[in-house]
Amino acid sequence: MKWLIRILFLVVAAFGLVIGALLLMPGDKLATILAEQVKAQTGRDLELTGEVRLSFWPVLGMETGPVTFANAPWAGPEPMLSAQSLAVGVDASALLSGDIRIKKVLADSPVLRLERADGRGNWELHQPGSSPVTGASAQAVESRPITLERLELSNARLIYLENGAVSMDFANVDLSARWPDVTAPMEMQASMSVPGGAVEVDLTIPDLPAFSTGVVTPLELGLTAPGGDIQFSGRVNLAGEMDGKATVTAKDTHKMLAAFGQGGVTVPKGLGQVANVSGQMTYTQDGRISLRDMIAVLDRNRLEGEADIQISDPPQITARLDAGDLDLSDVAGNDTSSGGSQADGWSKAPIDASYLALANGRIRLRANSIAVPGMVFGKSDLTLSLDRSRAVLEMHPATLFSGQLNGQVVANNRNGLSVGGSLTANNIDINEALVTLGDIKRLSGKGSGHLEFLGVGLTEDQIMRSLSGKGHIEVGKGVISGLDLDRLMGQGKGSGGTTVFNSLTASFTMKDGDLTNNDLLMKLDNFRADGAGRIGLGARDIDYLFTPVALRANSGQGISVPVRIKGPWSNPSIKPDLTKVIEAATEGKVKELEGDAKKKVLEKVGKELDSTVTDTDQIEDALKDKLEEEAKKGLLKLFGGD
After folding, report:
1. What would the pLDDT profile of 463-484 be if each residue is shown by its tens digit?
2. What is the C-alpha to C-alpha distance for residues 230 and 247, in angstroms, rounded to an integer?
3. How many helices and strands, by DSSP H and E, does the chain display?
4. Which of 107, 279, 313, 584 sits in a 20 to 30 Å window from 244, CA-based?
């Protein structure tokens, strides 16, 4: 037994000497030994600087100063891991039984670059010259329990690359994680400084071993940011693809967008300054998000449908949405402090069209009603296409002014703001349209027509004063208030009362904000009225002349009295054009006097010539006849005849 005791004593002494030698070894020498061992096991360089300290029991660990761990040869020259300091500890007693229980991994200001390409990950480690472990050896390695009690990264930068392209790059991250048992969920918390505060992430993966082998596993994710939060419950794989129920709640969308690097984006009221969006979400590796069974509550509006989003700058969106009563009346803002009242003219307040650059894509929308600034659409089916700050709104059809509109309207903010369109209207309420668009209240009826227009400017006033285009209109039976054409034609006084007409047609052109028409035709029971003149769309004034014409004699009591409408839209004057009346009356009187004088001359000539003369052309013939007669009489007397 003595020799056995001596052998044991020598082994313990030798082990003690080794431990003591390691503990007393200079840090640089110890760092060299560790680096050589890592190089031999992984094929990668490990560079340790500063003091290196080891511990052996009960925790086998190492603490070091600045550290750099090389990347995979195919992944580029940047190190996979670098840190200002690193501390790693493993449960020594568990390691003797074959279990790997990591007690701690602490890193200060680490930069971790994870990269995946061609099915390889730069975190996969094996000895140089060997192949990745497969078969029974792989099962043995994978069956070895590995747990993590404490992981802490302070002021970290996390970078993830997919096939050479950066998918994620987060800086100023504080991260902690724990996985105390192979059957326990892995729990991770992270915090990252962003404009306006910090983003807090809480993530739970119930089955980490399955997830680490690439199997699709459950995931619970909560993200809290300045202005709102995101919740996800579903499944995920190692590539980051997800499928499950997602909910985005934004109490302040502007602040939330700023936290994610979109501080220059302004969301108009009605489109989600306060928002709650939920649905079944699928995220794929190429940055595509699909939302199904989506419900979006944006301010006072609720929409349902589905959407596909390509994450890019700006996002690419394809969506089909259904809404009830959609209120977008404040989408252009309500600051009219510099624009004046509607009665004073068009607003001179700058129009903010920056929201046209929020996204690209195509959105189909069906709604029972849509309130926009200044008007309300009825039941409508619309398609909005967005492409680099240019929006095209197609109507197929849209209900407006109790009628229907087909066509499209374009807003282009690529190089200054311009608006234009081509619209066909059917059965539009003329009074409702004119009151809404121009505060004109005197004309009513149902009308149809076509309009092509273009306006350029940064304010409502500039756009209206630049309008150009053309169109035509046809109105059925209608009423003009403030003008009584029947009375005007009968007695020459047409102010007050109303005129009921059977039809009205007109075509027009627009240039520099002025609408010009020369062929208006209004038909009444007893009269017709022609019209021509100018309507100032920019200046909000009118200078127009109606010319009524009697279709029958009207018992001989009526005369034609043209009517001039002139002045501002809010209060134009409607008066008979006496100049035209006087000109017509004077011309008639002159003709009458000329006729009387001519009649008297012809009677006098006829009496003198003793003949009936009814026309000036007969005077010459009558004179010839008279001369011949006198000549005959003279010859008879000369020759002694009777």
Report:
1. 999 999 999 999 999 888 876 6
2. 6
3. 11, 35
4. 313
- DSSP assignment letter at 353: -
Q: How far is CA 96 from CA 24, 75, 93, 511, in A?
A: 24, 35, 5, 91
Unique residue bearing structure tokens 């930069």: 111
Distance CA 123, CA 115 (A): 8
Cβ burial of 541 (10 Å; 0-12, 13-18, 19+) is middle
Instruction: Compute the distance between CA of residue 22 and CA of residue 32 in angstroms, rounded to an integer.
Output: 12
Classify each residue of 119-138 as buried b or exposed e, where b means 16 or more C-beta atoms within 10 Å of its C-beta. eeebeeeeeeeeeeeeeeee
What number of CA atoms fall less than 13 Å from residue 597's CA on the CB side?
A: 6
pLDDT tens profile 84-98: 888 877 766 665 666
3-state secondary structure 246-271: EEEEECCHHHHHHHCCCCCCCCCCCC
Q: Are 35 and 46 in contact (CB under 8 A)?
A: yes
Give 581-629 as a DSSP string: HHHHHHHHHHHHHHHHHHHHHHHHHHHHHTS---STHHHHHHHHHHHHH
Q: What is the DSSP string of 440-465?
A: --SEEEEEEEEEEEEEE-SBHHHHHH
Exposed / middle / buried, residue 328 (Cβ in 10 Å: 0-12, 13-18, 19+): buried
Structure tokens at 359: 């996204």
H/E segment holding residue 41: helix 27-42
Q: What are 346-356's pLDDT values in tens digits? A: 889 998 888 88
| Six-digit token string for 482 | 């403030």
Assess whether the previous peptide bond of 58 is cis (omega < 30° from 0): yes
Query: Tell me, what's the pLDDT at 305?
Result: 95
Bridge partner list, 111: 82, 157
Q: Which residues is 499 bridged to in the sheet? A: 480
Q: How far apart are CA 254 and CA 419, in angstroms?
A: 27
Contact status, residue 446 vs residue 470, Cβ threshold 8 Å:
no
Residues 6+ apart with CB under 8 A from 341: none
